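Bumping with the actual sequence this time:
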Amino acid sequence: MNTGSNITLANGLVVSVDWISFTLSDSDEPASAFSLLGYSSNDFTSIDSGRFGYRARLMSVSGGLDILYDGNEGMGVHVDISGSGITDVLAHYLKKRLVIPTPFGSMTYESDFDDSTILSDLLHEIALSGHLTRLDLAIDDHGANFFTLPELNNILNDGRCSSRFRSYDSRVKHDLKTGDVIGYTLYLGSRKSECFLRVYNKMLEQNEKLKNNKQPLLTEPWVRWELELKDERAISAANLIIQRIELGKVVVGILGNYIRLIENDNVRKSRCSNMEKWEKFLCGISHLRLSCPSKLKELDDCIQWLTKQVAPTMAALMVAFEGDMNIFTDLLLNGRERLNKNHKRMILNHRMKLNQREGVR
């Protein structure tokens, strides 16, 4: 069965999923996460301190998987799967879904879709059972066959880039004793936003760990492009995978939608042609736009809009009519007759929240 979490493109780039985070809001017990992923309590060890407002934390014995629980009311159970834990998690999830369909004891993978992967099925079950909060997608350039970090930094400095990101930051880390470069990363966008891009020298990063563990160092150049998607952007990307769109098309397609490396052959960047090397990097994959549903407005949004946009006009009317409030009464009576379904939904949601607060008290 294809895991779907790792694929090599025709141009040699390796695409993978490097982080998955989700929350199970309907449960306060880690057993719900065990059941979803195919683990048992014996696969975990307890950690003294929690994180992110959760008081308790379990870490998998194999590493790369954390389960946080015992938070405040409504926080549920939170799960973090790092890149080092993805393979183990998918192996456990595969084992969970193996069934014995015949008397001869042969086992087969059970799925609702004929063309699914283990990753797409896992993301689908997460969507049904909880809420995805983060999804990291990586592109590895082993051998740095396309862009080195200094080269990419020069391209950005020269403005040979058209991007949805508004800013970038270049950071070079040096060894204080030797002066050697031990880290090189370019950050594009804001870490607080729902889409953030890191491009870094993976060889240097890995060698820092290998050096500390007194292991042989890597010698082959290695550049990683890593998209960190959160909340609605993560959910949108996961939905593409759930729809069985090949991982390479999803990852490269999203990256291509956020950034283009260009030739400055037009006064308008949007009309500039792509660099030939960038076209080869994209491997013929069309860009993919992450469509996120519009957030439903609530009464708090209406109050903010009234405060910013309408309050000055209301104050002018009150001054003009010398404090006579009848004009506002007439406006409110007229507006009440014109309430639509969305207004009634906001009123109902507001009353439900008030009732919940009263119940807590």
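The tokens above came from a reply further down the thread. The radius of gyration is 26 Å.
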